[in-house]
Design a protein that fits this description.
The protein has one domain: Growth Hormone, Chain: A (Up-down Bundle). About 65% of the residues lie in helices and about 0% in strands. It has eight helices and no strands. Helix 1 runs parallel beside helix 4, helix 1 runs antiparallel to helix 5 and helix 1 packs across helix 6.
Amino acid sequence: MSVSTPASTAKGFVKPRLNFSQIFNMSFGFFGIQFGWDLQRANMGPIYEYLKASPDQIPLLFLAAPLTGLIVQPIIGHMSDNTWHPRWGRRRPYFFVGALLSTICLFLMPNSGSLWMAAGLLWILDTSGNIAMEPFRAFVADKLPESQRTSGFAMQSFLIGLGGSIASALPWIMSNIFHVSNASTNGSIPSSVEFAFYTGATIFFVAVLYTILTSKEYPPEDPDWKEKSKQKKRTGQWF
């Protein structure tokens, strides 16, 4: 799996140690990303069945995640390594775009009117999720001194596990705790799944936006980084 390289910082600048709340803030977006991933992973099979997918079609429909990850992750990693905005930084524009597109897909998914609409939304959702997720992997190295990176990755892992666990159980929570109907009427997607996706979409976007608004990024060390990046592209050195 591709991992973006850490951003260099201003010349002579030593990254400060961050406290627990700062590490939590910069990692919280991963909670939302994993929430969206595991929500669709746990429920796309039943959604395909409600939309009358045949058993031999379902494995092909699930090719979206590995194929989009294979293609999108190295591209987004390279692009975010060579991005800098004075206000929004290096990684955060990708967080926002990926989260926005993923949120739209999660809202639309339970309203799919056909099998191929659901499959198309899943491909877009997996692509958008990778746009948001890949730069998050480099965010720890960008923000934290080497002595704290283990803590940063541990925080990400904790939030990934927490988000995935809650998301996988969300339709059950909807039907058994909030008493939302889990019955399918005339082959439609149950209300418990529908409201689970609406909730997951909101959590995805809010969690990523929280990280964007509470975390800053350090500028590139080399003032000529942009020109050097263009030179690499002209000579075919993409990665």
